[in-house]
Design a protein that fits this description.
The chain is 17% helix and 45% strand. With 436 residues, it is α+β, with helices and mostly antiparallel strands.
């Protein structure tokens, strides 16, 4: 006779369920066995149901916890996708310390100067994969202080006396050079709005000290192309797979002065989006080719509908033409740029400042991976006498780290006009720069 295991187990359960005296007194009837089996099955079903409810409660709690985490992350970065608010926010900056030892033909113009030329902080945030914010806050010349000193005449003040205020302003400036939103319409088209750097020249958009040779920036891209040149407005950029890209921007125009020591000086006309006069806007366009590794060819045009923002003052429209080439092949590199302004107006023509131009060429060679030598020649013809000169420069950059640079150079400048000849000089410059 074969007895199945489940039957043995059931029998054992039945004997366990019966009181001790039951075996001794009498065997259970069939009806009693059936009642016992029904009671045991009900208990088993209850235990199974309780186990299933416990598992479901745990699963629901896990789902709620995961949903809560996703909700917090979405709230932090605007449902941008992956990454927290901190992951989508970036901070950086750069700075430059300069030492200039200038020896001029007119010894009264000799100078030795140490200057924390720039301290800059970047702040950026990515709202979504397509929408971003960029900003750049700069402090020039270490500090800014604006004081007014009152001159009190001897004997004190009497009724009706006027007190003159002597402006004792420090050389420093605080500038917000960038603060704009950028949106990718698609993979090939980007738009921006706010305060941004204009797409002109080599240095205007990329001017961190580790990216160029020389302690001081080249003069063509400071005097003719008034770098750093930013403006408030809107822009559109296109990028194509063949290496061709283009930029177009509509923005505030220049307000070039027509009188005083800075008359018709372009860089003095930058409004810097500080309650800028927007009566006459300006337009900037650029076409660029980067289809060959190491090569950049570009041309830009800037059109000023009224370069002074005031009609009838002898200065009307202005057009800037700029073109440049940058090439790098192994340790050898070459930069060259030409820029020219053409202005209309009787006053600027009478001052012989209606045509202002300049060019430079700069070959360089890295003798070591972190040590580069360069030479630069510049020729400039701008509005002021002191801004008409040619200049030779040689020097070296040493990078102890890719984001840190030590610089040394020698400059020789000769002015074109006798009135500025006393300002001819030789200079030795030392610099420290960094970015992060």
């Amino acid at each position: 006779m074969k007895i199945k295991l489940p039957a043995l187990m059931m029998t054992a359960l039945l004997f366990q369920a019966m009181p001790p005296f039951a075996v001794a007194e009498s065997a259970p009837t069939v009806e009693q066995l059936w009642e016992i089996i029904q009671a045991q099955q009900a208990e088993i079903d209850a235990l199974k149901k309780q186990q299933e409810e416990t598992a479901q409660t745990a699963a629901d709690a896990g789902d709620k916890a995961e949903a809560a985490v996703v909700a917090v992350e979405d709230s932090a970065h605007g449902s941008a996708g992956t990454g927290s608010w901190a992951d989508r926010t970036s901070i950086g900056g750069y700075g430059e310390l300069h030492y200039n030892n200038v020896s001029a033909d007119d010894s009264s113009r000799d100078s030795k100067e140490l200057d924390l030329h720039r301290f800059v902080l970047y702040f950026g945030h990515e709202f979504t994969d397509r929408l971003r914010f960029h900003s750049e806050l700069e402090l020039e010349h270490a500090f800014l202080e604006d004081e007014c000193e009152f001159t009190v005449p001897e004997g004190g003040l009497a009724a009706g006396d006027e007190v003159e205020c002597e402006d004792d302003r420090s050389p420093g400036e605080v500038e917000l050079e960038q603060a704009y939103l950028e949106y990718d319409i698609n993979d090939a088209l980007t738009t921006r709005g706010g305060v941004f750097l204009l797409p002109v020249g080599i240095l205007n958009e990329t001017h961190e000290p580790t990216t160029f040779y020389g302690v001081e920036r080249n003069d063509v891209e400071s005097i003719i192309v008034p770098s750093t040149w930013w403006a408030g407005g809107a822009g559109l950029s296109g990028h194509h797979a063949n290496g061709i890209s283009w930029d177009f921007a509509l923005h505030e125009g220049l307000a070039v002065p027509t009188m005083g020591d800075s008359a018709f000086r372009v860089s003095s006309g930058r409004q810097k989006t500080a309650e800028a006069d927007a009566s006459d806007l300006a337009y900037t366009g650029r076409l660029r080719y980067t289809g060959i590794p190491g090569l950049e060819l570009a041309a830009s045009v800037n059109y000023q509908t009224d370069a002074s923002q005031h009609g009838g003052d002898g200065l009307g429209k202005g057009i800037l033409y700029e073109t440049h080439a940058s090439y790098q092949n192994g340790p050898f590199a070459l930069r060259a740029l030409y820029a020219r302004w053409n202005f209309d107006g009787s006053a600027i023509e009478a001052a012989h400042a209606d045509k202002q131009d300049g060019w430079y060429i700069e070959p360089s060679y890295k003798v070591l991976a972190n040590l580069g030598l360069y030479a630069r020649y510049e020729d400039i013809d701008a509005a002021r006498d002191q801004d008409q000169f040619d200049q030779w420069e040689i020097g070296a950059n040493f990078w102890p780290h890719e984001d840190v640079v030590l610089k040394v150079d020698y400059r020789n400048r000769e002015h074109d006009l006798a009135s500025a000849a006393g300002g001819d000089f030789n200079a030795v410059d030392l610099g420290i720069g960094y970015q992060f």
